[in-house]
Every structure is written in C-alpha cells, then in structure tokens.
Design goal:
The complex is a heterodimer. Chain A is an all-alpha fold. Chain A is 62% helix and 1% strand. The chains are: A mainly alpha, B mainly alpha.
C-alpha cells in the first residue's frame, strides 16, 4: 500500500503543472470545433458576457471603429496607472505637489506612468464623445436600445467628472485655477438669483459650490473631496454602470444591425453557405421567459461567425492599439505640472479643462445660461432622443435613412456658419453690456450669444422637421449642430482666448506681464 | 473577405510590437539613461584617479552610483543637488570641471550640506534630478537658481545683515548703504521701522518670480 501511495504521490507531482493548468482553463486545450469554441466563450467569467456567435457586421471595422472598446481600454489603463500613482500620491495641500514632483523625479518611471494616466484620461473623454456620435449616426439608440443610450449618457457624465476631479490633485497652479473656474461654473445659478434679488433666500449656486468644495474656496476640504470622488466613488460608479452597459448590449441583441434578408447565407470563408440550419419553431425552458429576440425562433440562417476567436481578436487588437497610442503620447509629451498652487497669483487666463472650455466661453456671456441652463438643455435633449425618434429604420448603418447624409452636411455647414458668425460678431462688436451700459442683468441672461445658439439650432431643427417630414432627420440636424457648436466653441476658447478672456489670434500674441 | 478577423490579428501584432518597444524604451530612458547616472560614473573615474592615499581609496570603495539627497525637515526641503554635485565637500576636487568641483569658500564648514541642503541659499528646484529642471529658469518653478553673485541675498533669511562681515556680503552692503542714503525708509517699512506711504518691504524676498515687478527698479521708472 505504502509503495502505491508513494507512486501515486510522485505521479501527481509529475502531473502537477498540467493539472493546475487544467483546473484554471476549463476547456484545457485550444478549441477545435464550434462546440468547443462556444465553451471557450461561456465557460469564462470575462468572456461569457459575449454571445457565442456574432454577426459578421459586428466585425466590420468601419461600423464602430472600436470606439466603445477603446473607451473601456483607456479606462482600464487609467485604473492600473491610477493605482500605481496612489501608492505615492498624498492628498494634502502641503504634500500633494511635492509628491507629484517626487513621482516625476525619483519614482522609477514615475513620470512615464503619470504621463500614461494623463493621456489615457484625455483619450477616454475624447473617445467617449466620439462613441456617442457613432451610436447616434448609426441610429443605434432605437428600440430596444433606448435604455442603453441613457446608461451611456450617465457614463459620459461620470467620465467628465472623473477627469475633472483628477485635474485638482497635482495641486499646481493649473489645477488650482482650473478648479476655481470649474467651481465658479457650479456657482453660476447665483447670476440669476442675484438678478432677481432672491440670493438671500434661495441660493442653489452657492450650495452647489460649497457641496463641491466643502468651503467657499479651493483648499484642503476641496482636495480631499476631489480625491475621494476620483479614486473611489466615481470609478465604482463607472464600473457598475459599465457592467449594465455591456449587459444591455448583450440583452438587446448585440450591436444594432439591419434585419438579415430571410433565408440569407453567410458571406465569409470565401463562399456562401448556410451557417445555421433552420431552427425549431418552439423553444422550451427558462430562455423562453427572457425578453427580446433571443432565442431566434422561426428564422433561417444568419450571417454569424464564432465569437471565439474572431470577436476576441478584434477586441484584443482595439485594446492594444489604445495602449500603443497612449504609450506613444506618454513617451513624447509630459503631463503638465506648473508652479505650486498659489491663491495670491491668479493665472491669466485661468482656463477650465479643455472639455469644459466650450462651457467657459458660454459662461463668459452669461454664467447662468452657459453654466447651468444650456448644459441642462443639452443633457435633457440628448436623453430624449430615443424617446422622440421612435420610428425604426437605419439601425446599425451610418446615415441609414434617406436624406440623412445630406441633412448632416447641410447642418454641418449651417452650424459652422452660425457659430463662426456669432463668435466673430461678439468679438468685433461686443454685446448688450457694451451698447447699453446700464442694462438690467436679466436681459443679458435671457439674450446672449449662448441662448441665441440654442434658439437658432432649435429653429433649424424644427425647419428640417417640417420640410423633410422626419423626426430622425430633425434629430440628425440638432445633434450635428450640437457637435459643431461644442467643437468650435472648445477650439475657440482653447486657442483664441487670452488674458482677461480677450480675443487673440494665437497664444504667442498674448502680452507678456 | 477571407477571414473576418485577419485584419485584427495584424493590427494586434503591430500594436503589440509598438507597445513592447515603447515600454522597454521608456524603462531604459528613465532608469539607465538618466543624466545623473552618467555624471556619477564620471565622478567615480575621477575618484579612481585621485585615490592615491588610504583616505582616497576608502572614499572610492564607499562610492555607490545612487540617488543622493539632503532632507531637511526643519526647512521643509529635500535637495537632490548632491546627486550630481558629488564633490562639494571634497577639497581634492577644487581643480576638476563642474558639476564635480568643490564648493568655493569656507561656507560649508559652518553650513554642512547634510544639515542645510542647498536651496536654502541658492534657490532652484532641489527635488529635480536634471540640471535644466534644477536651475529652473525656463520651467514651472517659483524660485529659480540664483546667479552666483546674488546668492548672498539669502544670508538674511537667517542672519542679521548688520552683524555679518561686510567683505563677505559686498552686494548686500551696497544695498544697505543705498537704502539709507536714498531714504527708502521714509516711505517703506522694514522690520517695523519706516514710513507708511509705500508698502512694507519685509517679505519682498519671499516673492515668486511672477510677483517681482522689476519695472519700478529700472530707469526711467525708478522711484
């Protein structure tokens, strides 16, 4: 007996690498049949959120450009580099700046890690915006994906908040004054309450600002609030909502796509062949209770391929491309770090982070309109899109319904002309305050370039609605106007606004102090 | 399209190669190509040349290529200048090229680097490990390195200028004489004495480079 137990033990020891490997990878080998490829997908926690087969359209690069995945990838990059930075960062006004300097100078590759974190976060904001535009222009928000559009909007807001809270942490001049500006945008309802004289009784602006900063100025309380939001609350919220977002993609039947023609054939592998046999007309079991189009009943062959390996190659490649782009940017361009924050030396111009500069331009006309009402209108407007445009058609196709492309181009030129014209007019001739120095502030709150943008764009969209007789086209025109307005205002405030928010052609022309 | 994921596999290959190249590149650049490592290897060669006696051989044996710093909690400074200026307190280095040269004068006798650091007198960015960042003329730093002839201005951070030997603080002596002769004190307060017409001058030295308004000190605007 003893001898056989020893033998067994030695045998097990010999087999150890293989048995450990088998216990980790349930399939235990390279999948060889479609059945095993299915198992590879649904036996893995991280992969099983995918369906086992995907439509070939899903893999077409020009359908999505991998934007949603790239946003997720850049989030994961910030998550990993963020944890590394947390090891050295100290969220105190006395120590924060020095700890960033130490990360730059003495932590091994610390500067590079901070650069990656910075660039991945900037990339994330940009890619999330582009992803939203992709989903809109491929009409992918339509039934049954309305809810996921809302989840996506929530993710957009959290992304902006994550980036904004991270902005303060280095505690340098850039951070300090950008957050001062940002918190003053939160304070902007006070312009309205001041104008009608009720600030003493109702002060939502002051409340928002104090809620954000924990004080009336940017100091230690603000720093610790931003830190907690940045490293704990917001990432947790984002991960949770991201889970919902992915889950709903699956439950809503994958990426939006047009209906396959009945009896269609697969178009890959160099030949046309039926991939699925016609399915049984009845299904039994729990699956029948699940809402939606799955399981496909009474439908013929579909243009699907196995997720393993095709979809996973695609996902992995988008992930690595994002990593590579971030690394290249981080290698050549350092994340900014200015002088230690100093409340006595205001930056001039003090600019918010770039994605809020469009708002800051509007705030420069009217704090309430630019900082409060217009962002609310934009957010509510975006949220309402899938509920106001409910006619099916064009799903999963760029500019899928008729006239969409031409309406897009018309709106693009229209919005460019309006935005550039309005900015040129404002820069050259000023606004109401310059013409009527004693005018009531209330008039300026109501009539300013920002509110006129909203009115003109809304009027244009109504015009398209009447003329083209299509809700989708009206939505396309309005969304295009929003994108153009956002882009041009952001560009204008970034490049052409100098000290005292005056107009300059280039930053090199700013007066030296 | 023969295989729907072929393009992605190529993309993955290219992106992965780029990723590996840049990761390795950054690791090498930040760790092995750091300026101070080259400087310290030069210094070790100098040490080897000068290791003619027991003391010299001992210093050579003790020398390690590593980051060095003077951390002074009382001043709130961490000065890493000695990572490159290895020879500041070695009298044998008086004739070698910077950054290895001995500190001039006898000031270090009473102000050893490990008790006072460097930036308390010289200003500049003590935390930095690159000369451009340490000198901090054209980087974001409030107190760039003083030119050598200006360094005496920081003596008064701790000392009473009146009690210092005038030959060691020539510029300060001229300044104090001008202050008396031009009656600056009739308008400005300094140390609690003087007029109230202009602002007090007590904390002028603590101003950052952005706060110093030089226009009032140069003709024709001199007040």
């Amino acid at each position: 007996m003893a001898e056989t137990a020893t033998k067994e033990f030695l045998h097990n020891l010999h087999e150890l690498p293989q048995t450990v490997k088998d216990s980790c990878f349930r399939l235990g080998k390279e999948p060889e049949s479609e059945r095993e490829e299915s198992q590879a997908t649904f036996h893995n926690l991280f992969l099983h959120i995918h369906s086992v087969r995907v439509h070939v359209r899903t893999l077409k690069p020009t359908l999505t450009f991998g934007l949603g995945l790239a946003a997720t990838a850049s989030f994961l990059i910030t998550l990993i580099t963020g944890v590394l930075l947390m090891v050295y960062y100290k969220p105190s006004t006395d120590l924060a700046y020095q700890s960033i300097k130490d990360i730059h100078f003495t932590v091994s590759t610390g500067r590079f890690i901070r650069n990656i974190h910075r660039w991945a976060s900037q990339l994330m904001v940009l890619v999330v915006l582009l992803h939203m535009a992709r989903v809109f222009f491929t009409a992918s928000y339509k039934k049954p994906r309305e809810f996921n559009w809302l989840v996506g909007l929530g993710l957009l807001v959290i992304t902006l908040a994550l980036s904004f809270t991270g902005y303060l942490l280095p505690w340098d001049q850039l951070a300090y004054w950008a957050i001062t500006i940002g918190s003053n945008i939160a304070n902007s309802p006070r312009e309205l309450t001041d104008a009608i004289g009720i600030t003493k009784f109702v002060d939502p602006g002051g409340f928002q600002k104090r809620l954000l900063l924990g004080a009336n100025y940017v100091g230690q309380d603000a720093l610790i609030r931003f830190y907690v939001l940045h490293v704990f609350v917001l990432p947790l919220a984002l991960v949770t909502l991201l889970g919902v977002h992915f889950w709903r993609i699956r439950k809503d039947g994958g990426l939006a796509k047009p209906e396959d023609p009945p009896g269609g054939l697969a178009e890959w592998g160099g030949e046309r062949r039926p991939v699925f046999q016609p399915l049984a007309t009845k299904t039994y079991g729990l699956m029948a209770l699940v809402k939606g189009k799955r399981p496909p009943v009474n439908r013929g062959p579909e243009n699907t391929v196995m997720s393993w390996p095709h979809l996973f190659w695609a996902e992995l490649s988008v992930f690595m491309v994002t990593v590579a782009v971030t690394l290249i940017l981080a290698f050549y361009s350092d994340a900014p770090l200015k002088e230690l924050a100093n409340a006595a030396i205001p930056e001039n111009p003090a600019k918010a982070p770039w994605y809020f500069l469009g708002l800051q331009e509007l705030v420069s006309y009217s704090a309430f309109m630019g900082g409060m009402l217009i962002p609310m209108i934009v957010l509510v407007g975006l949220a309402l899109i899938p509920f106001l445009d409910r006619r099916p058609g064009g799903e999963g196709t760029w500019f899928g319904t008729s006239h969409e492309r031409s309406v897009f181009w018309q709106s693009l030129f229209f919005a460019c002309a309006v935005t550039v014209g309005m900015l040129a007019f404002t820069v050259n001739y000023g606004w109401l305050r310059n013409w009527f120095p004693n005018i009531q502030q209330l008039w300026i709150i109501v009539i300013n370039p920002g509110s006129l943008f909203v009115l003109i764009f809304a009027a244009w969209s109504l015009f398209i609605l009447k003329r083209k007789n299509s809700v989708r086209l009206a939505a396309v025109s309005l969304f295009t106007c929003f994108l153009v307005g956002f882009t041009l205002l952001t560009y204008f405030a970034t490049v052409h606004r100098g000290p005292n928010w005056h107009f300059y052609w280039w930053p090199s022309q700013w007066p030296a102090h | 399209m023969k295989d729907p994921s072929r393009i992605y596999r190529w993309l993955l290959l290219v992106a992965s190669v780029v990723t590996v190249v840049y990761l390795v590149g950054a690791a090498v650049r930040e760790n092995y190509l750091a300026q101070w490592r080259t400087v310290q290897q030069e210094y070790r060669n100098i040490l080897r040349e000068k290791a003619t006696d027991d003391r010299g051989r001992e210093l050579l044996a003790k020398f390690r290529v590593e980051m060095k710093q003077a951390s002074i909690p009382a001043l709130g400074t961490v000065d890493r200048c000695v990572t490159c200026h290895n020879g500041v307190d070695d009298p044998r280095m008086a004739d070698v090229e910077q950054p290895h040269r001995t500190h001039p004068g006898h000031i270090l006798d009473k102000h050893p680097v490990d008790r006072f650091g460097c930036t308390v007198c010289h200003h500049g960015q003590g935390a930095a490990l690159m000369f451009r960042e340490a000198k901090a003329d054209d980087v974001f730093w409030d107190y760039p390195l003083f030119p050598p002839e200006m360094t005496e201005s920081t003596c008064v951070t701790c000392h009473d200028a009146e009690k210092l030997p005038p030959d060691q603080i020539p510029l300060l002596t001229v300044g104090m004489r001008l202050y008396r002769e031009k009656s600056c004190g009739s308008c400005h307060k300094l140390g609690g004495r003087g007029g109230a017409l202009g602002p007090a001058l007590d904390n002028e030295g603590a101003k950052t480079k952005h706060q110093l308004i030089m226009t009032n000190l140069r003709p024709p605007h001199t007040t």
